[in-house]
Amino acid sequence: MTPKFIKKSVIQILILVGSIALFSLFPKNPQTASSNSIAQIPPFDNSPPNLLKPPKPTKIPPSPAPKPAEQPLVFAPPAQFRSQIVYKASISNSKVIALTFDDGPSPETLKILEVLQKHNAVATFFCLGRNLREYPEIAKKVVQAGNAIGNHTWHHYYHDVTEKIASNEIDYTGIHIYRSTGARSFLFRPPGGRLNNGFADYAKNKNYVVVMWSIDPKDYQQLPADTIANTVIFQAQPGAIVLLHDGGGSRHNTVKALNIIIPKLKQQGYRFVTIPQLLQLQAEQKQQTVDRQPK
Ligand SMILES: [Zn+2]
Fold first, then answer.
1. Could you give the CA distance from residue 200 to residue 276 in angstroms, rounded to a whole number?
2. Cα of 115 vs its chain's centroid, Å
3. Does the pLDDT value for residue 18 go beyond 60?
4. Which residues are paired to 211 by β-bridges?
5. CA of 281 to the centre of ligand 1 (A)
6. C-alpha of residue 44 to centroid of ligand 1, in Å
7. What pairs with residue 75 in β-bridges?
8. Which pTM does this prediction carry?
């Protein structure tokens, strides 16, 4: 082998290796190359929107349920009784009766609460503002035991009053009902049941129901318990409102009378309700009568 031949062979080998190298740089199949470049495009995995179908509503993640706001306690009559004067409820289909106690709260109120609780009965207490200021914790117990509370003015004036005085007497008592019990009340009883001295008119303008009574056993005259009890039992009828007192001196006879009245009337099928409950029952009964009328 001559050096010239070796040189020629080396050149030939270099050319061959170079050709192989060059050939391997080019893709063998142009289609493969193009599909490789398509493969580099991110896959189209969302199907096109179907315009015939309405889009599914996007689910909104539920927000945490808001805490229920504490309902303020309100003693109010159904709307039809606002600004009205009520002596009794017109109820024929239910043996219900409402006991009411005026002139408290006082230490005597606690004895009355005890009797009511013993017999599982509730009542309505028309309070004086000045007594609420003195015995707020007793008023609180009245409401906590499931009874209703109402406004009986601040001083228990019988004489004629100006609108300004009526406003002071009733509004401040309302504020003290709220301060002592946390409740707002739209139940008003005029002192002495007087309807023409300015108080009842003011209360009616302020959407109170003016609550009078249908049975007055005159317990404030310190009559014997039997006499008080007999008056209530003999005059009892569905929807009646009974006037009693938890203030204005010893209520010994009233407490004793209650221990006769409640079991006796319960025996006759009566149940004892608050004034808002009583008026609600009348409103529901009227509604049922309207519903039953032929069209
Ligand atoms: Zn009174």
1. 18
2. 28
3. no
4. 86
5. 26
6. 85
7. 185
8. 0.76
Whether residue 42 has pLDDT greater than 60 = no
Cα of 68 to ligand 1 centre, how many Å?
38
* Contacting residues for 167 by C-beta, under 8 A, at least 6 apart: 202
Tokens representing 114?
């005890």
Active site residues: 102, 245
The full set of domains in the chain, from first to last, is 73-292 (3.20.20.370)
Find the length of the chain.
Answer: 295
Number of other CB atoms surrounding residue 181 within 10 Å = 23
Beta strand pairing call for 209-211 and 187-188: parallel
What is the reported pLDDT for 60? 59
Q: How many degrees, rounded to 5, is the angle at CA 281 between CA 275 and CA 284?
A: 140
What single-letter amino acid sits at 2?
Answer: T
Task: Tell me the per-residue pLDDT of 195-230, one tens digit each, with 9 for 90 and over.
Answer: 999 999 999 999 999 999 999 999 999 999 999 999
CA of 52 to the centre of ligand 1 (A): 76
Q: How far is the CA of 5 from the centre of ligand 1 (A)?
A: 142
Structural tokens at position 49: 């929107």
Q: In angstroms, rounded to a whole number, what is the distance separating the alpha carbons of residues 208 and 210? A: 6
